[in-house]
């Protein structure tokens, strides 16, 4: 029953998202990495020291699993609850069997479908214009990172949106800036709790980018454990965040007394 | 059908529902109260969206909080609109039916039937954004009845409807009741409710003021002063007579009438003809403002506010 309800919400939301503004956003996210790569190519066209595969790999990592995945899931997943509450449509869903869970997970899956499709399309387009003979290696490194990053970021933003429905976007921006962009760079234990750290470490390992092993600071910056451990942590992290979001949505009172006038 | 045991709901320090105890058998009830009286809070408690701070709520024998089995038997039409603008009524009602557990095909059938019941067949494929407020109200009702619930809870369902729409909605709800199904209809307008059911719950300030049929609620007011208007060409003489007989708590003269307040209306009605005959005073009209349900409701509110002892 619950799986069918999740699938119902997924299809309904995916169809409902077929609006001009959403499609424009999808197009902008998809084309943005290609635009940046194209501009970099033009800027360095006459430079005799052309960047190597490692540099392009890092560029594409920054543009796709970081920017497209993060921004896309931020825009889609953060307002999952707040949009329904502000639109006062939450109540119709909350009085259905497993309605709130179905809405949460159905919209989560819709987020992943839309953002992942955009991220993969953007990766393909950007990889096509990278001035290297063998872009297949870069693509095969970035694609799994993209596949890991979308569900993880979507789960984070979903949980933030569930915990703070009234200020969801502000909180999500603050989280992104403070944790994913600043804390993830701090070479200490705390950065291991960020998605960014795990993805970055996997990037260095899968892309075979050499790391100076003589400094603990650099190791803390990109991480030492094997790749499988980072993958397991990312998957577990995603599942735990989703379970917490489900717990919050089941236990929390989202009904506002001002909904009616009585 | 509905049991509330010492239910209190607090929003911080603000009381939404105040120590409410209630046991309603299956049937149709009107939930009456002015704006801000706690109707929506009570309905939110009944539909499991809110958790009581104190006390317990049972609907159809079950706790409503996160109760999938109960939600299959419950239809709820909230007071707020909350419809998706860019989908059609058919898509939306079908979607909600699917969330009730219907297959896609059955959900479509149920949605079409419900929309036909509320007279929305012709417009059901148009985006909801193009609907008038009355049409949206019908669609809201359609989603509440589409899965054929045992208990229908409606919050201000007449809002936005024109007179014809109100009549049609009323007829629809009467049919619903005639089919033996239960209904709880919240409204701040008495005339809307009394045309559909004669059993009421009156709330104000989060408290249950009274419940029962109109007659039962009226019985609560035996000791409350009744206001009676007597129309006569000799208002001063009539007023003097009434004061002399010590039957009134208060009275006033306005134009050609005497408006009096009494705690003993029965005694007044019994003795007034002989007093008038003795004094040779003719009255051309007599009516009690307290005969209407609206007056009854007003009286209960006055008692509750302490305006009447």
From TrEMBL, chain A:
* Origin species: Bythopirellula polymerisocia
Q: This protein's superkingdom?
A: Bacteria
Provide the transmembrane region boundaries: 23-44, 56-77, 112-132, 138-160, 172-190, 227-249
From the Swiss-Prot or TrEMBL record, give the protein name.
ABC-2 family transporter protein
- UniProt keyword list: Membrane, Transmembrane, Transmembrane helix
TrEMBL record, chain B:
Transmembrane portions of the chain: none
Q: Which InterPro entries match?
A: AAA+_ATPase, ABC_transporter-like_ATP-bd, P-loop_NTPase
Q: Which domain of life is it from?
A: Bacteria
Which SMART domains does this chain map to? AAA
Q: Domain (ABC transporter): give its ranges.
A: 2-230
> Record's CDD domains?
ABC_DR_subfamily_A
In the Enzyme Commission scheme, what number(s) does this protein have? Answer: 3.6.3.-
GO molecular function: any one?
ATP hydrolysis activity
This chain belongs to the protein called Daunorubicin/doxorubicin resistance ATP-binding protein DrrA
Q: What organism does the UniProt record list as the source? A: Bythopirellula polymerisocia
């Amino acid at each position: 029953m619950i799986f069918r309800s999740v699938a119902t919400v997924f299809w309904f939301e995916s169809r409902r998202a077929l609006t001009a503004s959403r499609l424009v956003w999808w197009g902008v996210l998809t084309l943005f990495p290609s635009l940046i790569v194209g501009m970099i190519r033009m800027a360095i066209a006459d430079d005799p020291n052309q960047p190597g595969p490692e540099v392009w790999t890092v560029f594409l990592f920054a543009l796709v699993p970081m920017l497209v995945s993060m921004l896309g899931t931020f825009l889609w997943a953060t307002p999952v609850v707040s949009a329904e509450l502000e639109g006062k449509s939450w109540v119709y869903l909350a009085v259905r069997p497993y309605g709130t869970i179905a809405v949460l997970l159905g919209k989560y899956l819709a987020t992943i479908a839309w953002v992942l499709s955009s991220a993969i399309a953007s990766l393909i387009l950007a990889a096509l214009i990278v001035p290297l003979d063998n872009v297949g290696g870069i693509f095969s490194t970035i694609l799994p990172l993209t596949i890991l990053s979308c569900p993880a970021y979507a789960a984070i933003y979903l949980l933030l949106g569930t915990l703070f429905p009234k200020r969801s976007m502000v909180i999500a921006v603050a989280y992104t800036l403070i944790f994913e962009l600043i804390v993830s760079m701090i070479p200490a234990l705390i950065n291991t709790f960020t998605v960014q750290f795990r993805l970055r470490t996997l990037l260095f390992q899968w892309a075979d980018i050499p790391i100076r092993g003589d400094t603990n600071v650099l190791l803390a910056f990109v991480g030492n454990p094997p790749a499988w451990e980072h993958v397991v942590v990312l998957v577990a992290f995603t599942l735990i965040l989703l379970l917490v979001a489900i717990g919050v949505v089941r236990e929390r009172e989202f009904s506002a007394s001002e909904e009616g006038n009585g | 059908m509905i049991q509330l045991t010492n239910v209190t709901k607090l929003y911080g320090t603000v009381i939404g529902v105040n120590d409410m105890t209630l046991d309603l058998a299956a049937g149709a009830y009107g939930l009456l109260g002015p704006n801000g009286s706690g109707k929506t809070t009570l309905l939110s408690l009944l539909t499991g969206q809110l958790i009581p701070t104190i006390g317990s709520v049972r609907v159809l024998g079950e706790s409503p909080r996160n109760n999938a089995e109960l939600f299959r038997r419950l239809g709820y039409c909230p007071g707020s609109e909350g419809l998706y603008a860019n989908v059609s009524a058919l898509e939306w009602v079908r979607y909600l039916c699917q969330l009730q557990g219907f297959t896609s095909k059955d959900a479509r059938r149920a949605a079409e039937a419900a929309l036909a019941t509320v007279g929305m067949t012709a417009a059901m494929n148009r985006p909801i954004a193009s609907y008038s407020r009355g049409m949206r109200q019908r669609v809201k009702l359609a989603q509440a009845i589409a899965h054929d619930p045992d208990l229908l809870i409606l919050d201000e369902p007449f809002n936005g409807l024109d007179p014809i729409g109100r009549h049609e909605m009323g007829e629809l709800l009467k049919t619903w009741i005639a089919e033996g199904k239960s209904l709880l209809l919240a409204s701040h307008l008495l005339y809307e409710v009394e045309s559909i059911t004669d059993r009421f719950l009156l709330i104000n300030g989060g408290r249950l003021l009274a419940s029962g049929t109109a007659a039962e609620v009226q019985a609560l007011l035996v000791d409350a002063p009744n206001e009676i208007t007597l129309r006569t060409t000799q208002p001063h003489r009539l007023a003097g007579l009434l004061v002399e007989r010590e039957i009134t708590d208060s009275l006033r003269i306005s134009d050609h009438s005497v408006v009096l307040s009494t705690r003993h209306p029965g005694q007044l009605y019994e003795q007034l003809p002989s007093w008038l005959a003795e004094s040779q005073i003719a009255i051309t009209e007599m009516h009690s403002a307290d005969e209407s349900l609206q007056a009854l409701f007003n009286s209960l509110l006055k008692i509750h506010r302490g305006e009447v002892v």
